[in-house]
Design goal:
The chain is an alpha/beta fold. The chain is built from 10 helices and 12 strands. The chain has a single domain, classed as Aldolase class I (TIM Barrel), CATH 3.20.20.70. The strands form 3 sheets. An 8-stranded parallel β-sheet has the order 2-1-12-11-8-5-4-3, sandwiched between helices. Strands 6-7 form a two-stranded antiparallel ribbon.
């Protein structure tokens, strides 16, 4: 291991790229609206939607412009939280790891430029379109660079068993979705939520810290891979009923679930997201228990359908997992809003 340079701490980056008071007010208002959904005070449905990875600032901002109009059309029924995922886990450790690592996907990694790029992107989403967004916590240590901007954090399937992710989630003031692990063990998932909702004293970025627990930690169902390597979905009616029963047997606060329509649930067949989203809404509409815990969907969507390799230059097409293009995404957003009961 070779040390390259000492990076600025989050406080220094926040001072260099501060937030205006009106942006803070917008973020707090949206965060309150999101918390009300998880507490059951609001009947709105959450859509966490956007690219698999935010690889290109201009394309992401073009996407947010379109998404902003869709939010205006559906604001009475939906709360849209854009996915701006700026760091990506890789199954083998190889491949594009996100804007944090490579603000230019074709260039060498540069973490300092990456930290600045991701803060500026999330800040632009808030200032230009009033969006406070979702990101994945790949590294617990880097959360503080964006902690004043985000409304939602996801802990990935490969990280959900990690103690540091669980404890860091327990100290956050935003809803944190804990994905079921890649092997699909629901008891591991429930344990992770329990840990994130608890109070802890632990080591974080060289500090002894105390967390009070995060009452908004909840489940994300994303499917899993069985021992043969086959993708197995867990978004079905029976899965949601089972999760509701597990919640009922626990002492967890604010029982909630977000269904990820891609990944192992779709077998990474991105067009299946349309059918899966509608299936979840149907299940939710026909069972009060399922409706009470199923707070929203996570959808991978971008300007153009599908995916491309790094170096190919179709503007707004994913360079990681395939995504729904905008036309299909827009139609799906409207269909979801119209189908809710």
């Amino acid at each position: 291991m070779r040390f390259i340079r000492k990076l600025p701490i989050p406080m220094e980056i926040k001072k260099q790229f501060p937030l205006k008071a009106e942006w803070v007010e917008t973020r707090n208002r949206k965060l309150t609206e999101l918390r009300d959904i998880f507490e059951g005070k609001s009947g709105k449905f959450v859509l966490i939607i956007g690219p698999c990875s935010a690889d290109n600032r201009d394309a992401v901002m073009r996407y947010l412009e379109k998404l902003c109009r869709a939010q205006e059309e559906t604001q009475d029924r939906l709360l849209i939280i854009p996915r701006i995922y700026t760091n990506k886990p890789r199954t083998t450790g190889e491949g594009y790891k996100g804007m944090l690592h490579q603000p230019d996907p074709a260039a060498r990694p540069d973490m300092l430029k990456g930290i600045i790029a991701i803060r500026e992107l999330h800040r632009s989403a808030l200032s230009d379109y009033g969006f406070t967004c979702a990101d994945e916590m790949l590294y617990p240590e880097n959360h503080r660079y964006l902690s004043d901007l985000l409304a939602y954090i996801a802990v990935g399937a490969r990280s959900v068993e990690n103690q540091q992710h669980r404890l860091t989630a327990s100290g956050m003031d935003v809803p944190v979705g804990m994905k079921n692990p890649t092997g699909g063990d629901m008891h591991v998932l429930m344990n992770s939520i329990h840990a994130a909702q608890g109070a802890h004293t632990f080591l974080y970025r060289g500090w002894e810290v105390h967390s009070d627990g995060n009452p908004y930690a909840h489940a994300i169902l994303r499917g899993y891979v069985d021992f043969t390597g086959k993708c197995v979905s867990n978004y079905h009616y029976e899965n949601l009923v089972e999760l509701g029963e597990m919640y009922a047997q626990s002492n967890l606060k604010n029982p909630a679930c977000i269904v990820d329509t891609n990944h192992a649930n779709s077998g990474k067949r991105y067009l299946e997201q349309i059918r899966i989203a509608k299936d979840v809404i149907y299940s939710r509409n026909h069972n009060d228990s399922v409706r009470s815990i199923t707070k929203g969907l996570m959808i991978e969507s971008y300007l153009e359908d599908g995916a491309q390799k790094v170096g190919e230059n179709t503007f707004g097409r994913s360079i990681t997992d395939p995504c729904l293009g905008w036309e299909k995404s827009y139609r799906l957003i409207l269909d979801i809003a119209d189908s809710l009961r």
